[in-house]
Design goal:
415 residues, alpha/beta, 10 helices, 31% helix, D-ser_dehydrat-like_dom, D-ser_dehydrat-like_sf, PLP-binding_barrel, Alanine racemase
Length: 415
């Protein structure tokens, strides 16, 4: 089967090999489409395994798009969470206006799959990457913007672009940071200097302001929410100041990981209303990437829209050793499952918890004897932080829904 002009659909023609982690041995030599036509079931797959849930993915895509639309927020979800073109398409088809990505290499991957609107949530400083982007700007259908937080960064971008003679100026957003945060100018005065430098460049265009509030808090404590809210207020103030430089042209204001969506909404809503009343065009862009997959850990505990989302990824692992009454070892570890925002959570094993992970083992412990758990038994694991789960897998089986063993897709990742 051929998929002329549709590189995402063409992934179904990729031929599977014996090198694919977790896939049944019989899949080797078949294309993805041929394998799925045999109606595979999860009990054929080898453990350890990462599994996605089609019903939850579809519902989550609709939920986050609906939440954003209700608030007049545009959604450009962070594609680096999954690096899976099929899941990018799911959100684009649901109404997302484009993708956010984190590195030039990720941008290049997205372009090979036909993504037409991309925001690089980072500074673009690599000369070779800048030259490549300059070439992409020759495509009038490609909308691209990157970030800058220092005059030195703008100087470097400008020098590389001048050498590449782009067909049009490159859009740049001024990034505002916060004390103790990640990147970003640390105060409004510095950010405005960056904005003026961009506005003065013949090869750059001042396109708006950007920031990431998630590095300023890690929980729902009063201190964290106050720090995030204050920062978002400063981001709106920076937009107002940049508006004086940009006049009436359209600007972008972007924030929003997946943890503090409600605070982003609270900060942006008055400015959205004021801008509409004044007739000044601004796109208020949310970049939530984890909301599509959600989780059973960090985001489950902190997301303000947890009730509207469902975890769409789970781990499967088998007991390979039961050396003590209160200890069982599973065959999945750091090479298979995310662990940076909390350990996996076992289901169906009352009183047990995963207390540690090695490369290929999980320590399942309980204060009581783990009765009824034998070597070879399968344990389903709730995972935390999808960003560090997807990168461990090249093909990920997708079951129909949480109660189904029928595999309806294989999601291909590109890390």
């Amino acid at each position: 089967m051929t998929h002329q002009g549709d590189p995402i659909a063409a992934l179904a023609d990729e031929r599977l090999t014996g090198r694919e982690k977790g896939l049944p041995a019989r899949a080797a030599g078949l294309t993805v489409a041929e394998f799925l036509a045999t109606e595979p079931r999860l009990d054929e797959f080898w453990t350890p395994l990462l599994v996605l849930d089609r019903a939850a993915l579809d519902a989550n895509a609709a939920a986050i798009q609906g939440w954003a639309g209700e608030r007049r927020l545009e959604l450009m979800p962070h594609g680096k969470t999954t690096m899976a073109p099929a899941l990018w398409r799911l959100q684009l088809d649901a109404g997302a206006s484009g993708l956010t990505l984190a590195t030039p290499a990720q941008v290049r991957t997205a372009r090979t799959f036909g993504v037409a609107r991309i925001m690089l949530a980072n500074a673009l400083v690599d000369p070779a990457a800048i030259a490549w982007i300059a070439g992409e700007l020759a495509d009038p259908g490609f909308a691209f913007a990157s970030w800058a937080d220092a005059v030195d960064t703008v100087d470097r971008m400008e020098a590389a672009l001048r050498a590449s003679t782009p067909a049009r100026p490159l859009d740049v957003l001024v990034e505002l940071g916060g004390p103790g945060g990640r990147t970003g100018a640390r105060d409004l005065e510095t950010a405005l200097r960056v904005a003026r430098r961009i506005e003065a460049s013949p090869v750059l265009r001042l396109a708006g302001v950007a920031g990431y509030e998630g590095s300023l808090g890690h929980d729902r404590s009063p201190a964290s929410t106050a720090a995030v809210a204050a920062y978002l207020g400063e981001l709106v103030a920076l937009h107002d100041a940049v508006r004086e430089l940009a006049g009436d042209r359209e600007l972008i204001v972007t924030a929003g990981g997946s943890a503090y969506l409600d605070l982003v909404d609270a900060a942006f809503a008055p400015a959205i209303a004021a801008g509409r009343a004044a007739g000044r065009p601004t796109r208020w862009v949310l970049r939530s990437g984890a909301s599509l997959v959600h989780d059973d850990g960090f985001y489950h505990g902190i997301s303000p829209i947890d009730a509207r989302l469902a975890p769409a990824m789970r781990g499967l692992a088998r007991v390979v050793s039961h050396p003590e009454p209160g200890l069982a070892l599973l065959d999945g570890g750091k090479r298979d499952f995310s662990y940076d925002e909390g350990p996996p959570v076992p289901f169906g094993v009352p009183g047990a918890a995963v207390t540690a992970l090695n490369d290929q083992h999980a320590y399942l412990r309980s204060d009581q004897a783990l009765q009824g758990l034998a070597v070879g038994d399968l344990v389903e694991l709730g995972l935390s932080h999808p960003c560090t789960a997807f990168d461990k897998w090249r093909f990920i089986p997708v079951r129909e829904h949480a109660a189904s063993a029928r595999v309806v897709d294989l999601v291909r990742t590109f890390f």
